[in-house]
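[Q] Does anyone have a clean structure-token version of this?
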Amino acid sequence: LATLGLRAEDPARKWERRAALSPEAVNTLVAEGHEVLVERCAKRAIPASDYEEVGATLVDKLEASRCDVVVGVKEPVQSSLSSSTSSTDKPHAHLAFFHCHKGQSYNFSLLRTLLDSSKAAGTSFIDYELLTSPSKGSTVRSDPTIPTAPPPAAKRTIGFGSLAGYSGMADGLAQLGTKLLAAKGVPSPFLSLVRPLQAGRVEKIKLELERVGREVGEGKMAGMDGPLVITLSGRGKVGDGARKALDELGVRWVKADELASVAKSGDVKTIYACHLELADYLVSRDGKPFEREQYRKHPDQFESVFHTKIAPYSSVLLNGGFWAPGCPRLLTTAQLAELQSRSDNRLISIVDVSCDWEGGLEFVKAATTLDDPVVHPAHPTSTQLSSVEILPSAFPIDATEHFSRGLLPYVRYLLEDPALEKEGEDGKEIRDALRRATLVEDGKLTERHEWLYRLVEEAEGGGARCRVRPFFLFLFDSGPQKADLEAYRLVAGPAVRTLAERDILDVVVASNDLPAAQALAADYANVDSVHLDASDKAALSNLVASADVVLSLLPASLHVDVAKLCIEHGTSLVTASYTSPQMAQLNDEAKKANVVLLNELGLDPGIDHVTAMRLIEEARSTGNKISSFVSFCGGLPSPELSNGPLGYKFSWSPRGVLTAALNSATFRLGGRDVAIPSDKLLSQNFPHVPLLRGFAFEGVANRDSLAYLPEYGLPSDLPTILRGTLRYPGFALVVRCFRTLGLLSLEPFEAPIGRWDELVDACARRLGVEHTGERAVEAVLVDESDELVAETVQALSELALLPASRAVANLPPLPSSPLAPLDYLSILLAHQLRYHPGERDAVVLHHEVTTRSDEGKDELFTSTLVQYGDDKASAMATTVGVPIALGALLFLDGKIAQRGLVSPSSEEVWRPLLASFEKGGL
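[A] Here you go.
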């Protein structure tokens, strides 16, 4: 009827001795009339003669062109895949673990070969890992290769998971014998435990485990200062397999809340084991009890307390749990380091079966091997690590028989005559499963895997294109006031430069000022420019529809409309603006559309989130309780320029700085909540903020600090949390006087003013003051000190806002239509306090986290960023433009698994961003 090819495994995989099908399965296929070709392989555990005896034909080299179906275990040798267009080649299916569907970078070359082979020979490539049977009542995600929360919605139907868990646990116990002798001087029964690799069969290991368990029960663990305690994570097939091995060892199962007790006073003749539930080591960042459904939806809102609740009482950890980007890590590098620094550290061995590099166990970077399975630490009392990723190969015959039973129904279906109607529920389920598991077909990635095109093209450095080049749309606009345009253009520069360094990207800069957009694009071959009026919804919609990612520096008021278009067209969005309530309401719609809305990715907010999360993690790694979080950030002129009006210059929109002075603020100091109304914000400032010895700063509270408790995973009862804005001394009080004068009013005048020095007079008349010039200022500020009034008059005079001012030359033209006082002031400040050639700005960002030990000892952790502008870009432009671009690239690289609203404080965002900041010029 049809021909099946059982190929040999890659000779470079020296420990790979499994086969995809057993002789028993081959016998079934031959009996049904199929031809089976078996490629000879000397290291295959099952002799070739066993296949020949049941009717298979042995071949020295398997020719795929003769086969309707080819099966193997791991990735094939790329040179063995057909790239011929010979008429003798016929379309066939090739099944294996290809390890391409998650965007694994080490297999981009193989994925390209699969595409080329499929195009030339019509091959369909089907991945075993994607053969699933949807759980009852569940739905398969539109892109299941990018998990948003554990566990996956669809259950795998074939695999080696249970054997991996069984083998991993047995091998870990065998390794434990040597470790106990080296670390504790204990010659335990585990020293004589045969490794799975040596035993070869499951039945032999079962007898060995039962023997060792009996000897432990007989008291042959002399010298142990406490019982052996084994913890196991993962409730899937890996966990089931590990649990089976421990049952054969004869362990006593305990719950997580019993670990401390048994570790302290348990019987050394008993081996204790705990199979962990997620609720045993995951807690909500807001202090609420663990809820599985909430964790499925928002895994980033949880954190692991394994290092404090479980690890201190565990001797061995086997990690078999599911992990995906966005999920909390079971154990971080810092947490493991802290555990190992303790004299009472019990955790002497970790066996990682999951093998998610830098995943659930952050410190696991690569695989170990069956012949050299353990990474031995320099100090014998430290924790040893094993991370073998082909554990089932230790039982090659058992693994083959187990896997073959699961695979056979799919192979039989593929070998049947396509003209025959395959009816019944079983046939439909198999057909649908094969369709879901198909990675490449007709020379193309199947729809659910099309996102991989981007990664392949990037890896090829702009070589042959798979489909289209990733297209980034960069929006910037002057907003309602042309005075803001230069600020947006300056920030756009570092962002465009960061994107353009990826020469496989196409970047389009869209602006209502085409010359400015053209100037940004001029130096880069892969950057183009277009004119765009952001109020033209049809034009904006067309551009958004054609982009993979939109980066927006439009005024914040326009971002919700842009986000709605992104959701409509399935395009993700990155901005540097705060997430507004209106934007937050789009979360569910964005998730349904598989769209990322990544906001707050500039300086403040943005870099502050990223660096805060890193510092908080460092503080938590001590095991002490965080008692305080204080953060200040500010964009300032470099110190030598600080003697001008307000002690300030503008590298960014003056309007944004001025409107911030109209906000209210909430924070907590020493357990007391403080709420400052907007009209008191500048009065109740912090006149002295001692961050760096060489700088003099004052501070102003910034918005609602308490909102960042859940954002940063801090306890709701944290005694102190404060986020503030830095300025040079004197800024707050003078700007407060500006507000008192009415210069920050958002209510437009009825008629335009005729001269700049009429602005103060016009504001004074609104307040019922008929004086003009300096006398008007004095009349309005009658309740202020003479010194402050004099400072205010001097600032107004230097800004050309008073008659006979010194600074009257080269003033900007006045708008012809009436504006609000704040908008007039913004236009003037953008001109008068702009940076001139040779002048530089600075950005200062400082965090302080305080922890307190059980003994009452405080420890301070600090993080400081000081960035200066240079001849390429201002510090403000770099610290806003670079993060927004890096965030967009993070999405392109497939590193953001979440959908909907995504925060920079999410671990899958902040950790890789922090690593890339320095390369980006920060």
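[Q] Thanks! Anything notable?
[A] The chain has four domains: 3-143+397-459, 162-365, 603-734+820-922, 735-819.
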